[in-house]
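Re: [help] complex structure
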Amino acid sequence: MRVGEIVTAGVLALLSIYLMYKASANGIGFVAKTGPQGGFWPFWLSLGMLISTGFIALNWVRGTSPQSQSDEPVLDSYGLKTLLLVGGGIIGFVALIDIVSMYGAVAIFMLYYLKVLGRHGWFLTSMMVLLFPLGLFFFFEGLMQISMPTGMGFTEPVFNVLYEIIY
Amino acid sequence: MEILSLLGDGILVAVQPLNLLLIFVGVTLGLFIGAMPGLGSVNGVAILLPITFLVPPGSAIIFLAAIYYGAMYGGAISSITLGIPGASTAVATTFDGRPLALQGKARLALVAAAIASFVGGTVSVVLFTGFAPLLATVALSFGPPEIFALMLLAFATFVGLGGDDIAKTVFSICFGLVLATVGFDQISGAPRLVLFEMNGFLGGISFLVLAIGVYGIGEMIWTIESTRGEVTNTEAKISVKGIFEDTGTTFKKGWKGMSIGSFLGFFVGVLPAAGATPASLMSYGVTKMISKRPDDFGKGHVGGVAAPEAANNSASTGSMLPMLTLGIPGSPTTAILLGGMVIWGLTPGPRLFVEQSDFVWGLIGSFYVSNFFAVIVNLAFIPLFIWMLRMPFTVLAPLIFVLSVVGGYAAMQDMFDIWLLLIFGFGAFFLRKFDYPVAPAVLAIVLGPIAEPTLRQSLLLSSGDPAIFFNRPISAPIMIVAIILILMPAFKYLRPRRAKPAE
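Output below.
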């Protein structure tokens, strides 16, 4: 944790400097007739971020924050495994949206989470995998008239059937 | 007496069978729309606006107002049960609503939200009935300096009273405010902070992307990781007696929050640039500020649920006031309602109360009736929401992840924002590990788009002289209170240092 705290503060300080640089492109001063320039507000706020990271580093040096005194790892083996399995699953879910459609990706993610991570039985898993995406489809496309990504061409026959029902 | 007579006539209009049916359908639909992450009253009202052309204008606006009310109640449901703010108006409800649910007190949180919403709604319609023209005039005296002072006060309550590391809280607020500036400069129209030259940033960063990422993804992964997968969601039991007990607890522990939320919420809602979101955040901050135990807030305090919920309902009625009396919408939803009224051939403004008296008082009467129906429908559905929480966490967690992504897409309609949502989610997970408070960043991205233009307009008015904030009768006291709150951490820092030698 101790190393992680100062590394995080360092990364956030770099982010603050980058934001200051980007904001300065719009001008950070005050022009008599038009008032503060476009970069004025984000620049000074980014400077505020940078100063805050300075105080966080100072607290780290003085050892006043709990993290600066902790020898625990930021992520132990369980945490790393959780992050990879759960976080990786979510990234995979989002990556699949443009391929198998939003609803297809929901079904695959539910299958992965319920069966692989949750180790639930096939009955519950198959019910959730089938009914939840269908429920979402009728709510969003039918009731709310909001279209979700339909993925690549091969999903078209399925959507044709579903659109027949709601239109 | 004339007002009471007009109000009586209005209530009679509202309880006509068609209007009563529309109110019931409206609050129920609104409740579920508001409960869905990513969707809020503005979506419900906008989508269902065309349907209203099938009924007379008076009934149409009653239906839309009922949806608005229902959605305000519903926003709290996903904040409490899923930990994802359904809409910006329910962000503050997450701060204490979710911890209560995780402590097995989801029923208490849901009852507190419903009762506080009812109280806020009732107080606001009474204020609306009695003081509409007067308040509309006062609201008009709020210019950019006053609105900026109010925004500063909202940030100050988080800095001055945060139990967290102050440097990290300030970082979080500044970061949220900077994120709110991404996209285009609102005044010059020039592209600004297009990060890494990616065109996706030209559209700006919506608060929903940050809020859903932080609460729907980051907090969830953190919960799974920190509890080693042994998450106890809730052990709340459902019973009518329990709901009555929780109602008593809400009044006992949340009366301050409800009172502040009801009155402050109404007034902030009346202000043309503000609306229910700043109202709920400010009410939360002020309730925490005057509480004897501010450290309990954020850990499951009933007042932390009651204040924002009373405020957002109160503000939703308040925001109708400038719309009806002046023709100025106080929120995005009332802007759509205003559009609807114009289509129906009604002209909002001072003459509306005279020329369309039946319509106006019918609408005001429907506020009372909608509020009553909304609390009944909401309380009736609490068992359903509690049942949802009783699901095994390995079923609930993927549902939350899916609703976060699907809700985020429904609101933004852009895959770039969904990837950004994931980045914020993972970023929030790591920041949470190092005790960075993320709520102030969400607060800041919501209020930033109001704060920046009002600051710039104020400085433009004064040719760059910041004294403009201190020489106006309304903004000056607000600014002074805000500055004192911002400096409070310094006072706190000095106090123990003085105390030490005495020990």
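Residues 77-117 of chain A form the longest helix (41 residues).
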